[in-house]
């Protein structure tokens, strides 16, 4: 018995030893995987360890990090990191909790953890800038939860990240993305291995087309900015120019897409008002104001805390494709989404849980039910946008209100960002203070811009309110004729029609049955005319031919009044009905995939008609004219019938749906339906090749533009810099870069336009030509950032340097504009300081430089090797006298005024 007990004891000890040994090996293996960054492989090992030691803080801490950094399960990451934070673990646990909560859209909680991490001393491996970017993203997320977009998912695919853009199907097949041409890349782009895309048409596009691309520019320590070029003629592009600071932030901008209108730009930025990584923004260019609008963050669910970029809408801006890193667990892949309702202006408020559930944009997932408070906020938002009472019924007034709401959100986010930065600035070491200061200045400038925009919007709103109250602007209060279309009378569909929509239908010159009858009648008569023309071609008997001709004339005469009415009323009828019916269809609850194809067919017919009309001249009232656009009319009729069919199915109007099926020839259309459904199921398959960007040839720099910073030298020996004689007449401003040798090193100058003025010792070089001091002042910082830190603003009047004060006084006066016809001056005047052997004596030079103002010291070599120093140039003897007198009073008694005769061309 004793022997048995000894054996049992030995067995238990042996098992314990083996167990402890196994435990030790498992812990070492887990830690090795963790140290190597193999977080997904380490998860099961740490889980096994926690089954035995559930309270161990290190295992909880590392398992939470593994779940987070592998993006395996954010809720599990939160659970384990939260448990670890109550024990003795590194302070970085609060940073990770802040990050996890940000990715879970719990932005309030995220900010509190970031603050706790900062108060506890931070961590050496988390920079101040990185922490500020994360906190700013959470703050921006707080605001954007209130303004989420109402988009509908169409398709989603996980594709190869190297060529993800080749799967997009929202832009024409005659265009696409390709590598940025070598002509556009700078030396810094090469050093940093710039890997980005540029959008182009196969043939380079039309004159006026704009291409936007990313570049590091000439600053080795800078971030990626957006530049653009514009097609000048069939073979030439404008020189590259950097987009303004409202678009380019101190952080990376990339993946730009310019819409066919050449004024709507979508791009991705890690700065501005990002909620994490790259976010997608939209900005539009005003040709009247010559400026870009403040970029608008597209918000949830298009943007997420992950990288989101390359947003490409279709021609009508309704559907779009974009790429995102959300939900990616495989290296080398990326998700491409296709969504509908991009043009929907209604914004709703979401809870963190709803936003997190929606970020997958999974068409099969049910939309989360909003909380009571959320539903109330959503309803309130709809009322605010759709209210039709009083001045709010004016469309322009409602647009201003929406813009003000967006401005308020951005202003609030920026103010919080500045407060946060100021709070930590004093505690930062000198090495990082500069970064924080740069962020503070950038955000203060942005806040000023937002404030100015807000004031402009408020002024516009006040003006509309005054005009409305005074009766200058009146609402149409007369009752419109009743609209009797079937979808207006249907009880289910009527709830989705607003008063403005009904008004739009009522103002149409044609009703639906009349318009459709006109098209059918014209088409039928056209077929009869074509048949008769074939008979006429085959006829040989003269009498028979005359009869046929008479019949053709008879049909054409009967067709003429119908065409006249069709041409005068169809355009406004079709525009109103297609818009309203499309809006109704999108407002209805999601239907089956089969029904969604009906909307795709309607859109296809609409685009087909639009393409025909874009390539056709004005419509006349003859049958020959009608033939040119007959297919467009029939496509437009079909687009309305497809929409009607969609609405009829949604409203359970079977008889109407059956008749529409017959009208649309379902046997033929079913093939299209099958193809469309197949295409949707195959979304994400590579269908495109890289577009070969045509060789970029740049136009020569001119003085017509105000100022641009280019990626390459603006001038060369073959294209030399012009002199100041090329300046326009009147008052203009420029930046004086410095005094250079007679032989200019053109590689130094990447600005345009530029010009020079000869002096006795070299060439004074200038950049930019501005019509106002204000516009020059707004760009001087950009010159200094690009290597000319001593640059300053100077003024010219009729191609001659003048004091800034004088130029400002003259600014805007038309007198200077008329002097272009006046002959060049016959003489100019200088104040001679003295003649010296070599350099001017220091005591005299100090006096002269103190009195220079905007003039220059001119060196004139003499035959005997001496150098005469003078100050100029002055237009009149009287202008030079005050300076001469001041020099004499300072002790330079030899100073005098000299006259220099000029040739008739001013030389």
Automatic annotation (TrEMBL):
The keyword Cell membrane does not apply. Keywords: Signal. Residues 1-22 form the signal peptide. It comes from the Bacteria. This is WD40 repeat protein. It comes from Acetobacteroides hydrogenigenes.
